[in-house]
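Structure ticket #2291
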Amino acid sequence: MGKIWFVTGSSRGLGRSFVEAALSRGDEVASTARHAGSLDDLVATYGDAVLPLEVDVTDKAAVFEGVQRAAGHFGRLDVVVNNAGYAQIGAIEELTERDLRDQLETNLFGALWVVQAALPYLREQGSGHIVQLSSAAGLVAMPLGGAYHVSKWAVEALNDSLAQEVAEFGIKVTVVEPGGFATRDGKNPDPFANGHMAETSPVYDGLRRRLAGVMTKQPAGDPAAAAQALLKLVDADNPPLRVLFGQGFYPMIRQVYADRLQTWADWQDLSAEAHGDLGRTAGAPSA
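Resolution: structure written out below.
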């Protein structure tokens, strides 16, 4: 029996590739986008196998209504893919409150609303697989990505806790951490597009140039291949909590984690000093 999917942000990019891969193998999909018209071609090709839903994940009520419609239409939900998101680029000093709130409303709160809306159905079934699209940016941080990193580090922690909370209900959780992929718009976030302070900064402008260079050199993955990898992931009996999609970032991530462990080890004496004597004397018998 085929799987029933609920996928956010499926008008283009990886989300669209995930939907097409699921439909192509005979699964059924509740496909969401901010504008339902962008899903018309899916309906024309796959008919009743796809349920198009107009959902902006920042609208909590719309998310809950969309999940309810999907569960009612198909009778169950097997795979819930939190894919909707975007990257805000700008130095910390340049970010406005609106920049950061908008980033978190989509990438963090939007994902949270989907999880909260879907969980009652998954718990009642005693099964289901929640897939959270994070990023290599959810594991390491680079200049000019502060807002995006905050949102993705947050969803990493959210889903780590979630996996431990729902395991006994028979629900699986996987955080997918893609590197760069050649999505359909063919563009990465432009470091020069926004976020500038009133005065120019040679330092920040230099960081923008370096970031643009990294984005250009990073090998782009094939979204169709990522979609096939996702099918294997959701079909696995024991899927991982975290998995990287794509190549290029793994060596950097491995080095960052090695450096982090080494730093903690190097500063253990100071860590012990910070603990003080209370830990050794508390509970000691009095004379």
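Closing remark: The chain has a mean pLDDT of 90.
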